[in-house]
């Protein structure tokens, strides 16, 4: 096997706010042979994308490739003249960005954008490039490959656009493709389709690829070798099976063992439910988003509401909190109906149901200190002030595993995971009986998310709080739920105790969701694809994910 | 205050304080009365008249000192009032929405559809000329612009989840406006304040020129530029003196505002 890319001892620096250069990648070496896929994995800020872009000899604005060597087929890219780099980029090395929606120009047709690089570089004439693009459209199982490219980016789904972007990268027949989190912005079920498409696309094309992601379970499906990055340094590198079976570094080990958390379900208590949603129908204007939704939550238990984006999960939370009064149906707390609008609920009713948001960045007032944020519910509901309040705030911070000194910080001085802990502390301060967690871990890195989940479980064991946990991630559901409610297009398609919902026979949609959660083993994707849609080639390339959405 | 203060802010602060001091003590240290004719028309700078004399032979330095208090005082009072009025109503409109927002916004639209200067002319011609009336008219007219800005920035903040969290907690309107929205909309409003203050000085001088602002013989800087504008044709620097004062004050105030702005945004991260 011949060596294609060789990065040696690469140092990358970024311009800080203080006007100095800080190292963000410190001495990483990468080697990649032809027809091989290298998985780059790590948390946000680990330097994955920076390293991926360095393979194109490129650094983002405010970032510079400081030292080291980047050789493509023996040719040094670091310090190469700009004109030479232009010849290489888009011809020999191409790039697939995370958000296809942002990467496509909305004003041009998809096919015209897909062939642009190949034609501009003079690799093919227009007719050849179009033929090549259509061949790849078909290969990536896009619907109606002959005419697909005539559409505009907004006329296709997110998963299709991401595949179209892969076509764009492949048309010039590059030697190396860099995939930068190509499935992160997609729904679970779509994600698998795109991953499978990328895998087939790479296989027959005699090229090497770098696949960047933060999800180890995804990358093991596609990569031959894996490089684990942490804080700009390579902490471990090895063959995929080797990393999975014998992770050497504690960090890698933690990554491998994530998603394996599982709590056995507890039986329903023999008492009436604490929170009940009965026959709720809700709408935004003329658009109906919830239809006849029922749900029951018992004291000290967890109900997980699962579904893809647009299934009405978050709307359900808005109905329960009173932000969106339902058109029909009611929400009961302790057997007593709650006022439909939060404006008319008593202070005590408001206190008993607390909401924790998905994005901790906007859920905390940036102009208040942690003490003010966490302390306000104490003053507001319990009239606790002064040193007593400070003490209680410190206790709450301790409960969410943050040091007491954080009380004086502003949200901007905290990391994403720390902010989410502060948001949880704020909710706890009200001493609620029900906590609604709206995708609380989805904006966090896997490892941080896992720690937050562990915290939620621990808090429940200690305080007997009940969770209404909203998520699209079945791995999380397995980890914490007692009962599961599966939602599709504003309706509950399946609900019940975890063991019943997760055990066959499934509703077809539950089945699809379940089989879309990547498992931490190498052959999983191939197996799942054989079992699913690929048993019969989909008609006109209609992907099973899209087909599965039909009721 | 932060330990490190950029030199531009130091300069701005020093100049602003100097202007404030002159406004306070001006009339007492002025060598002549502002209205007394003490020499020839447009005398050059001399020991007796360090800044020369104006188009009627009055001492320029004395008029500058008397004018400082009036110009800065009225402009500052009008701007502050317009901000109190504009931001309060703007925040209310953004927070309450619905018909409150609709009514307030339409009233403001109506006011803004009439050219400011003409509107001021009409109102001031009807009402008795006094400093209080002048300040009120300037403040009300200016507050329409502040309202629009305050409402727009508050709209962006109102939809954020921490405001929703406060509502779900059951917080009242006062807390939401003052503690959740207010601090988060400060930077753009602060920048606007610096600019509006300068506009107020210029607006005041337009009114004075038209005979509806400060009544002669009382001095104000804007009026002094106008009174002596003809001197430019003779190559005399007289009108440049009050003009320079206005410019310097404007720059000084904005240097301070910029510094505050940077401080206000620094804590919020990238």
Q: Give the assembly state of these chains.
A: heterodimer
**Strand runs of chain A, count:** 20
Number of helices of chain A: 23
How many individual domains of chain B?
Answer: 1
Q: N-to-C SSE series of chain B?
A: HHHHHHHHH
Just name the CATH architecture of chain B.
Answer: Orthogonal Bundle
List low-confidence stretches of chain B. Answer: none
Greatest chain-chain interface? Answer: A-B, 28 and 18 residues
What characteristic shape of chain B results from the CA principal axes? elongated
Low-confidence stretches of chain A: 535-551
Q: Report strand % of chain A.
A: 15-25%
Radius of gyration of chain B: 22 Å
Number of beta strands of chain B = 0
Structural class of chain B: mainly alpha
How much of the polypeptide of chain B forms β-strand, as a percent range?
Answer: under 5%
Mean of pLDDT of chain B: 84
Helix content of chain B: over 70%
Largest sheet of chain A: 6 strands, mixed
Shape type of chain A: globular
Most strands sheet of chain B: none
What does this structure look like?
- The complex is a heterodimer of chains A (551) and B (270).
- Chain A has 551 residues and is α/β, with parallel strands linked by helices.
- Chain A is 37% helix and 24% strand.
- Chain A has 23 helices and 20 strands.
- In chain A, the strands form four sheets. In chain A, strands 6-7-8-3-9-10 form a six-stranded mixed beta sheet, with helices on both faces.
- In chain A, helix 15 crosses helix 16, helix 15 (370-382) packs parallel to helix 17 and helix 16 (386-399) crosses helix 17.
- Chain A starts with a strand and ends with a helix.
- With 270 residues, chain B is an all-alpha fold.
- Chain B has one domain (20-39, 49-269): Orthogonal Bundle (MetI-like fold).
- In chain B, 72% of the residues lie in helices and 0% in strands.
- The chains are: A alpha/beta (551), B mainly alpha (270).
- The interface between A and B is medium-sized, with 28 and 18 residues.
């Amino acid at each position: 096997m011949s060596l294609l890319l060789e990065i040696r001892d690469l140092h990358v620096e970024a311009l800080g706010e203080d006007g100095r250069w800080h190292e963000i990648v410190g001495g990483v070496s990468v080697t990649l042979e032809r027809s091989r896929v290298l998985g780059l994995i790590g948390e946000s800020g680990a330097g994955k994308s920076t390293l991926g872009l360095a393979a194109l000899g490129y650094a983002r604005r405010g970032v510079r490739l400081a030292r080291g060597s980047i050789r493509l087929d023996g040719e040094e890219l670091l310090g190469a003249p700009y004109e030479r780099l232009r010849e290489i980029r888009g011809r020999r090395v191409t790039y697939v960005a995370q958000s296809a929606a942002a990467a496509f120009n909305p004003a041009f047709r998809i096919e015209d954008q897909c062939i642009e690089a190949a034609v501009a570089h003079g690799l093919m004439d227009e007719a050849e490039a179009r033929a090549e693009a259509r061949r790849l459209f078909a290969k990536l199982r896009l619907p109606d490959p002959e005419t697909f490219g005539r559409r505009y980016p907004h006329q296709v789904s997110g998963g299709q656009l991401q595949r179209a972007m892969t076509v764009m990268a492949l048309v010039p027949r590059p030697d190396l493709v860099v995939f930068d989190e190509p499935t992160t912005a997609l729904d679970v079920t779509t994600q698998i389709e795109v991953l499978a498409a990328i895998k087939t696309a790479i296989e027959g094309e005699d090229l090497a690829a770098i696949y960047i992601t933060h999800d180890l379970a995804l990358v093991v499906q596609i990569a031959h070798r894996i490089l684990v990055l942490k804080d700009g340094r390579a902490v471990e590198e090895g063959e995929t099976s080797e990393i999975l079976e014998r992770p050497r570094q504690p960090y890698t080990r933690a990554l491998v063992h994530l998603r394996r958390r599982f709590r056995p379900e507890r039986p329903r208590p023999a008492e009436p439910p604490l929170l009940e949603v009965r026959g709720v129908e809700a709408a935004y204007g003329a658009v109906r988003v919830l239809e006849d939704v029922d749900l029951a939550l018992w004291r000290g238990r967890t109900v997980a509401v699962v579904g893809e984006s647009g299934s009405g999960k978050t709307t359900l939370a808005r109905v329960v909190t009173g932000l969106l009064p339902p058109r029909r149906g009611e929400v009961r707390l302790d057997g007593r109906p709650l006022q439909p609008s939060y404006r008319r609920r008593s202070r005590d009713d408001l206190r008993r149901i607390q909401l924790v948001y998905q994005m901790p960045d906007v859920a905390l007032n940036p102009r208040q200190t942690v003490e003010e944020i966490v302390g306000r519910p104490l003053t507001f509901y319990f009239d606790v002030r002064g040193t007593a309040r400070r003490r209680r705030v410190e206790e709450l911070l301790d409960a969410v595993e943050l040091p007491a000194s954080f009380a004086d910080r502003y949200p901007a001085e905290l990391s994403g995971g720390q902010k989410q802990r502060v948001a949880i502390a704020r909710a706890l301060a009200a001493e609620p009986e029900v906590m609604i967690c709206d995708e609380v871990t989805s904006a966090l890195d896997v490892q941080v998310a896992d720690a937050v989940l562990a915290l939620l479980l621990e808090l429940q064991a200690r305080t007997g709080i009940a969770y209404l946990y909203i998520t699209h991630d079945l791995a999380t559901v397995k980890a914490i739920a007692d009962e599961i409610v599966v939602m599709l297009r504003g309706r509950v398609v399946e609900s019940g105790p975890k063991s019943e919902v997760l055990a066959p026979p499934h509703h077809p949609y539950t089945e699809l969701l379940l089989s879309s959660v990547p498992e931490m083993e190498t052959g999983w994707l191939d197996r799942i694809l054989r079992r699913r849609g690929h048993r019969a080639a989909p008609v006109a390339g209609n992907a099973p994910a899209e087909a599965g959405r039909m009721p | 205050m932060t330990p490190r203060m950029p030199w531009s802010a130091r300069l701005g602060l020093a100049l602003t304080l100097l202007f404030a001091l002159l406004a306070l003590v001006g009339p007492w240290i002025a060598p002549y009365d502002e209205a007394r004719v003490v020499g020839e028309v447009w005398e050059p700078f001399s020991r007796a008249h360090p800044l020369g004399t104006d188009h009627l032979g009055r001492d320029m330095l004395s008029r500058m000192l008397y004018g400082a208090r009036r110009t800065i005082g009225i402009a500052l009072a009008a701007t502050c009032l317009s901000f109190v009025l504009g931001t309060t109503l703007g925040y209310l409109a953004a927070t309450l929405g619905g018909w409150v927002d609709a009514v307030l916004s339409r009233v403001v639209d109506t006011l803004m559809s009439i050219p400011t200067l003409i509107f001021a002319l009409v109102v001031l011609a009807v009402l008795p000329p006094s400093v209080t009336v002048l300040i009120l008219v300037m403040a009300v007219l200016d507050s329409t612009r502040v309202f629009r800005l305050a409402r727009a920035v508050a709209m962006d903040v109102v939809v954020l989840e921490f405001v929703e969290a406060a509502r779900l907690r059951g917080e009242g309107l006062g807390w939401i406006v003052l503690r959740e929205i207010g601090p988060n909309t400060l930077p753009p409003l602060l920048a606007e304040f610096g600019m509006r203050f300068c506009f107020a000085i210029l607006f005041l001088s337009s009114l004075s020129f038209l005979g509806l602002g400060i009544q002669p013989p009382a001095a104000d800087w804007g009026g002094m530029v106008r009174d002596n504008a003809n001197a430019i044709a003779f190559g005399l620097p007289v009108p440049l003196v009050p003009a320079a004062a206005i410019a310097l004050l404007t720059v000084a105030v904005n240097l301070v505002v910029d510094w505050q702005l940077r401080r206000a945004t620094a804590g919020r991260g990238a």
